[in-house]
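Ops channel
N.P.: pipeline sanity check, posting one input/output pair.
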């Protein structure tokens, strides 16, 4: 095997001429090239100017990698030490040669890597080399957007059984699946949205989700008590339970008995994992720490392109809220208001959330206006005595305040806007507490 195999370093000064030329010459009998892929931003960060940074980048290494990828009939391009064991195994199994399929797979990965390098250099120059700074690019919105993810798994279907679907990217690097079968399209969407939601809270909280939509949520002394009360008050199979603390074995058993579709938690104890190991109907996932840079933006496909925006992760600060009415909020109101405000910005607009005693007692969303969201919530005959209402958009008129008062609610919070003075006067007339916040919470 040793006589059939030679390896080449890729620093240009090792050879007479460039590394790429050395590799292209079949007389040198190179069969494997290994190169660590470069992070352009890190490599360029230590230099004073873009010119010196470009000179310092090891472009010969990239060209060698590109050359190896374009010669898959006789060469494999490995992208790191972890690939050595795979290559060694293939060599042993195939009499000292590398299978065509192995080389082609490595070639496609190498070409994507060199393409990423070229794009990263272009983005670096876009920011550093312009006459005037591109403020949009500095803010994270470059002139060109590149979305390249490897396929993580093919799915059996999409939203409907007749639709094809696949999951791309690093989803499974953020979650560990402890139990249950393969996740489907609906489950992956639900887990992703629920993970952003549960990350809002420091106090123990539990929530139920279905089909990517929030169903119920509440605070508790611990995640176990919050989840237990939710499960006791909610019916319906295939819900997802999401918590930010430990469930405990008994609460976990109750969830399995309720035929939950899945559970997302920070971790499971050995006892909980033993219980989960004995069943296969309910999926159980651990949310691993950190979401990565991609969590800071969201990108949605539109006709012919994509929309990109900052994900709404700005802290909700009640110190920024303004009390418009003469009536003031009570000390006990603030916790429920935070639950409502943190919840409503994860709902499709227009939305309304009713909170009482640290629990969401009603929610409505996906309406064309706040008044329609309120009418829909009210149509269910919900009893709102002593409840607080949080809207994700400004109220359009005073009629909603009158209806809120008639149902027994005593506090309303909404983003600033609309007929503010009319709303203030009506709230004072009704004895309602009316508060506004400077930040909108709308989510389309």
């Amino acid at each position: 095997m040793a006589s059939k195999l030679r390896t080449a370093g890729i620093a240009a000064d090792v050879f007479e001429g460039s590394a790429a030329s050395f590799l292209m010459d079949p007389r040198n009998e190179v069969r494997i090239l290994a190169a660590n892929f470069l992070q352009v931003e890190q490599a360029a960060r230590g230099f004073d100017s873009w010119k010196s940074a470009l000179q310092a980048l090891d472009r010969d290494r990239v060209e060698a990698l590109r050359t190896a990828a374009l010669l898959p009939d006789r060469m494999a391009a490995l992208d790191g030490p972890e690939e050595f064991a795979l290559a060694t195994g293939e060599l042993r199994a195939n009499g000292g040669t590398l299978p065509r399929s192995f080389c082609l797979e490595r070639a496609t990965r190498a070409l994507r890597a060199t393409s990423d390098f070229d794009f990263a250099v272009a983005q670096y120059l876009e920011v550093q080399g312009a006459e005037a700074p591109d403020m949009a690019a500095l803010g994270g919105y470059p002139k060109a957007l590149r979305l390249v993810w490897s396929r993580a798994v093919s799915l059996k279907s999409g939203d409907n059984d007749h639709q094809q679907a696949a999951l791309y990217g690093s989803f499974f690097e953020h979650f560990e699946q402890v139990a249950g079968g393969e996740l489907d399209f609906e489950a992956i969407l639900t887990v992703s949205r629920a993970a952003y939601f549960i990350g809002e809270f420091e106090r123990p909280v539990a929530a139920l989700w279905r089909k990517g939509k929030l169903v119920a949520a509440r605070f508790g002394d611990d995640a176990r008590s919050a989840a237990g009360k939710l499960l006791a008050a909610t019916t319906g199979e295939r819900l997802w339970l999401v918590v930010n603390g430990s469930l405990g074995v008994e609460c976990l058993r109750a969830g399995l008995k309720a035929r939950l579709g899945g559970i997302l938690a920070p971790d499971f104890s050995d006892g909980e994992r033993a219980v989960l190991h004995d069943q296969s109907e309910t999926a159980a996932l651990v949310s691993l720490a950190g979401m990565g840079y991609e969590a800071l933006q969201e990108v949605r496909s539109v006709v012919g392109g994509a929309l990109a925006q900052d994900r709404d992760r700005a802290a909700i600060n009640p110190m920024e809220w303004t009390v418009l009415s003469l009536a003031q909020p009570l000390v006990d109101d603030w916790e429920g208001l935070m639950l409502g405000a943190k919840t409503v910005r994860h709902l499709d607009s227009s939305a309304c959330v009713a909170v009482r005693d640290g629990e969401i007692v009603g929610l409505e969303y996906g309406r064309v206006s706040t008044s329609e969201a309120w009418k829909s919530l009210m149509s269910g005959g919900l009893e709102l005595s002593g409840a607080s209402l949080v809207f994700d958009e400004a109220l359009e008129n005073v009629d909603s305040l009158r209806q809120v008062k008639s149902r027994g609610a005593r506090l309303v919070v909404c983003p600033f806007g609309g007929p503010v003075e009319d709303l203030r006067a009506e709230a004072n007339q009704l004895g309602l507490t009316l508060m506004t916040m400077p930040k909108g919470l709308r989510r389309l």
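N.P.: looks fine end to end. Residues 1-15 have pLDDT under 50 and may be disordered.
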